[in-house]
Design goal:
551 residues, alpha/beta, Gyrase A, domain 2, Isoleucyl-tRNA Synthetase, Domain 1, five-stranded parallel β-sheet, 20 helices, 50% helix
């Protein structure tokens, strides 16, 4: 029995009975929200439903609470009390907790994975950095958030496909080729003016050095146009491979890698023609403009320049149309906060194409600030530019980097304390969580050595200590937390949950022994910590963080 669902249904039924009795007027009922009270004397669950319903029922909240309390029934309910201005506090019968926990225990490794939802497929597109250089910490936050969101949605039962949009067409690829060419010539002793829009990172020099090491100076004799074409392809393949390698090291993989090149020119030409036929494209000054103001944008946008070259927007329109054509019912994009103004124009284009723009959800990622020794870290020690994701992983580790990125919601600025992330103490939240899991694994190894195994039918009702019941209640919240976090696109909720349940386990561990107590109690406690280990492991899995067995 899912007690929160049962209790919520009972509250709604009590309200309907009061309406039928003529005590409450007809009206749209408020949503029932149940919380675990901060103090045990306030019961097992509490709701502010009566206060939320005051405007609907035109009645004092406490009077509403009194009417509801007399109508809420169930063989699982010990009593209902009214507190303050109209809170309803519910006290459950003791067997309810253990009956519910037994079902979780019996579910085993399946617990935490919600049933498949009958919804259209969701596509989550994230990172999508230009393949022209190294990933930096900002990309890292987007990578952690996107991959955790995909994991979370899958755990909640949604059909999800993850995708990386490779920006491998346009001027940035030409600038990459010219930058590598300039460094190649410099390394071979030639005097050259570095391109104004070139990429000045140390990785460009490394690429040129690798070309020279492999092929020497054989490209010097070539026509520059031919040499640039070769360097464009060589650098692109190298940068893309390095990008994939860094992402895999960061526990990030994609179902699909979509090349922008595949949109040029045919898909762009087709979508522009479709928009022209529907009257949503007009010509002015030799350029083609999207009538985006007709769909909520603050001004119309150029899609084809007066020289016939498509804008980035044109490619993005074709790309998002392609997503819908592939049958996705919901599109989720994770973009940097600097793309805030771009959201409206892409949504406008989708509306102009006849799609429901609300099916496109754009999550904006705020900046990351790194701190070391209390001082802001702005530059990479190695390159003198932005700190790379690879450097961050080298300094604090993948697990710590991912967890710290996921502690806060995407739309909040993140201050990343490098010193704290490296600390092996309870002050470091990811260490604290992983240590809880490792500690449980240690317990399991020790009890195995003395011949105490996991019973198929432990006497869970023996778990009466406050630390035990607190841990059980937190475990029983997990599937609801997964469902809610997925609905809100909020992996930070799972990060918080993992910390909270680890804290409750540590409190249990400090008070309750497993070895050296009566066997049936030991078996019940072993069942409890085994489920706790699974939930910690499952939640860390959603976050893309490992659950070590030893530390």
């Amino acid at each position: 029995m899912d007690i929160k669902t049962t209790l919520g249904n009972a509250i709604e039924e009590a309200a309907r009975l009061a309406i039928a009795d003529g005590v409450f007027p007809e009206g749209e009922m408020a949503k029932v929200s149940l919380e675990v009270p901060p103090k045990k004397e306030f019961g097992d669950f509490s709701t502010n439903f009566a206060m939320q319903s005051a405007k609907v029922f035109h009645m004092n909240p406490r009077k509403i609470a009194e009417e509801l309390a007399g109508r809420i029934k169930g063989d699982w309910l010990e009593r209902t009390e009214i507190a303050g201005p109209g809170f309803l506090n519910f006290y459950l019968k003791s067997n309810v907790l253990y009956d519910s926990f037994r079902k979780i225990f019996e579910a085993g490794e399946a617990y935490g994975q919600l049933p498949a939802k009958d919804t259209a497929r969701i596509q989550v597109e994230y990172v999508s950095a230009n393949p022209t250089g190294l990933l930096h910490v900002g990309h890292g936050r987007g990578a952690a958030a996107g991959s955790a969101l995909v994991n979370l949605l899958r755990a909640a039962g949604y059909p999800v496909v993850s995708e990386y949009y490779i920006n491998d067409a346009g001027n940035q690829m030409d600038h990459l080729a010219m930058s590598v060419n300039a460094r190649y010539l410099e390394l071979l002793g030639k005097t050259v003016q570095f391109p104004e829009d070139g990429y000045r990172g140390a990785d460009i020099i490394d690429t040129a050095k690798r070309i020279i090491k492999r092929d020497g100076d054989k490209y010097l004799a070539m026509d520059e146009t031919e040499r640039l074409s070769i360097f464009k392809d060589l650098a692109y393949q190298e940068k893309l491979a390095a990008l994939k390698e860094d992402l895999e090291a960061f526990h990030v993989t994609f179902d699909e890698w979509f090349s922008e090149r595949t949109l040029h020119p045919e898909a762009i030409r087709e979508v522009v023609e479709t928009l022209r036929e529907s009257g949503n494209i007009y010509e002015e000054g030799g350029a083609l403009w999207l009538k985006s103001t007709a769909y909520g944008d603050d001004k119309d946008r150029v899609v084809i320049r007066d020289n016939g070259v498509p804008t980035y927007l044109a490619a993005d329109i074709a790309y998002h149309r392609n997503k819908f054509q592939r049958g996705f019912g919901k599109l989720i994009n994770i973009w940097g906060a600097d793309h805030h103004g771009y959201v409206c124009r892409v949504k406008a284009a989708m509306s102009a194409l006849g799609y429901d723009a609300s099916r496109l959800e754009v999550l904006l990622l705020q900046m990351v600030s790194l701190y070391r020794g209390g001082e802001l870290v702005k530059m990479s020690k190695r390159t003198g530019e932005s700190v790379t994701l690879n450097e961050l992983m080298e300094e604090v580790g993948t697990d710590a980097a991912r967890y710290f990125f996921l502690m806060r919601s995407l739309d909040s600025q993140l201050d990343f304390d490098l010193d704290l992330a490296k600390t092996q103490s309870n002050e470091n939240p990811v260490y604290y969580i992983q240590y809880a899991h490792a500690r449980i694994c240690s317990i399991q190894r020790q009890v195995e050595e003395i011949g105490l195994g996991l019973s198929d039918s432990p006497r869970l009702e023996l778990l009466t200590d406050e630390t035990e019941t607190d841990l059980i209640k937190k475990i029983e919240e997990y599937t609801e937390e997964v469902d809610r976090a997925a609905a809100e696109y909020a992996p930070q909720r799972i990060a918080r949950y993992a910390y909270d349940i680890s804290s409750l386990f540590h409190s249990f561990y400090n008070k309750c022994r497993i070895m050296g107590v009566e066997r049936e109690l030991a078996e019940a406690r072993l069942a409890l910590v085994s489920v706790a280990a699974h939930v910690i492991r499952h939640s860390l899995g959603i976050l893309g963080v490992s659950a070590p067995e030893k530390m």
